[in-house]
Design brief:
This protein is of the alpha/beta class and 366 residues long. Helices cover 23% and strands 34% of the residues. The chain is built from eight helices and 22 strands.
């Protein structure tokens, strides 16, 4: 399967710029997710690749084929781009059977009846829908309709698969199963895939690489673990999971260790990475904060538990430390008296650091 190259896309609707110099590459057989809030430009980027939206400037190529090059006047029609796309609404035709839905794009390409029938059978078996070939969409569940839409997208062996929030209409349990099934199918077929979602869990669990977007720009990217652990930008840290932020004065020890001193933690927080200082902000994930119960010698700024939530596999506490509130997560319920909150060395990471170069390869704010 070919790689996709997107270069310097700019698109405006009226006075609103929805894409602002969007540039990235999806490697051969890679599963890349565009993640961001509604209106950030992720679907417009996908529709630009598909050929349903035409940017004012920029270029898009798939392997050796140029789909769009505004400077050269190239803009291939959507039907000439050999891309498979699955929409949020599935867009299956209600008056056609499952087999007819899947076979329609093959008939448009003027394949013979026997070739169409054989390919439809093959693809329906691939998505585990072979026994439903003669049913109509109204006789199917949402998850089954989603598989029909995917089968139709795969029917003509597209070079690239584009997915626009295909699980958003499924219930939570079915959505979880669909993620695992689609990821396995994508891996087995070796499909180069661009996936659009605003769901953090989908992005983290399915992607080889994710790109976080906001206001028409890509703010950060990398492997799911890299983006979660080294967000770089405050917005990325806030959007991908929950995060706490602490600001203070920075000193660098003789061994190069960066120590951030804040009113809440006057003894200092050992942060990973480097920052020029003298002031800095760090991000700390709730599960990385340690809570010691029945601690001796608790100071006047003893942490106060404001509320607790049970989330099934963990407890989440909102804790006041001085004038700052922190979100803390633990796998066990803790006593609320005589607490001490500790931030272990190396779990805090700098955000919005001017000496961190942007990387495109690789919701709660307190």
């Amino acid at each position: 399967m070919p790689e996709i190259r997107v270069e310097h896309l700019v698109k405006s609707f009226g006075d609103h710029r929805v894409l602002d110099d969007v540039t990235f590459t999806v490697k051969d057989k890679e599963f890349v997710t565009l993640l961001g809030p509604s209106g950030c430009g992720k679907t417009t980027t996908l529709m630009s690749i598909a050929g349903f939206v035409t940017p004012e400037t920029g270029a898009i190529a798939c392997g050796d084929e140029t789909f769009l090059d505004r400077s050269a006047g190239v803009d291939r029609a959507a039907e000439e781009r050999n891309l498979g796309i699955v929409f949020q609404s599935y867009a299956v035709w209600p008056h056609m059977t499952v087999a007819a839905n899947v076979g329609f794009p093959l008939k448009v390409r003027r394949l013979g009846k026997r070739a169409v029938r054989e390919r439809v059978d093959e693809v329906l078996d691939l998505v585990e829908m072979g026994e439903y070939a003669d049913r109509y969409p109204y006789q199917l569940s949402g998850g089954q309709q989603q598989r029909v839409a995917l089968a139709r997208a795969l029917a003509y062996s597209p070079g690239v698969l584009l997915l626009d929030e295909p699980f958003s209409n499924l219930d939570a349990k079915l959505r979880e199963r669909a993620r695992a099934w689609l990821k396995e199918l994508q891996h087995n077929l070796g499909l180069t895939t661009v996936f659009v979602t605003h769901d953090q869990d989908e992005a983290l669990s399915m992607s080889d690489r994710l790109l976080v977007m906001n206001d028409g720009r890509i703010l950060g990217g990398g492997s799911p673990e890299d983006v979660y652990r080294e967000p770089g930008e405050r917005f990325v840290a806030e959007f991908v999971g929950q995060c706490n932020f602490l600001s203070g004065q920075l000193t660098t020890e003789a061994d190069g260790t960066c120590l951030l001193t804040t009113p809440e933690f006057p003894e200092g927080i050992v942060a990973r990475g480097h920052h020029p200082g003298p002031a800095a902000t760090v991000a700390i994930r709730p599960e990385d904060i340690e809570v010691e119960e029945h601690a001796e010698g608790v100071s006047d700024s003893e942490p106060i538990v404001l509320d607790v939530s049970y989330l099934g596999d963990r407890y989440q506490y909102r804790v006041a430390v001085g004038r700052t509130e922190l979100v803390v997560q633990t796998t066990r319920r803790i006593a609320t008296d005589g607490l001490r909150v500790r931030i272990p060395p190396g779990v805090a990471t700098f955000i919005d650091s001017p000496d961190l170069p942007p990387t495109l390869e690789a919701d709660t704010s307190i």
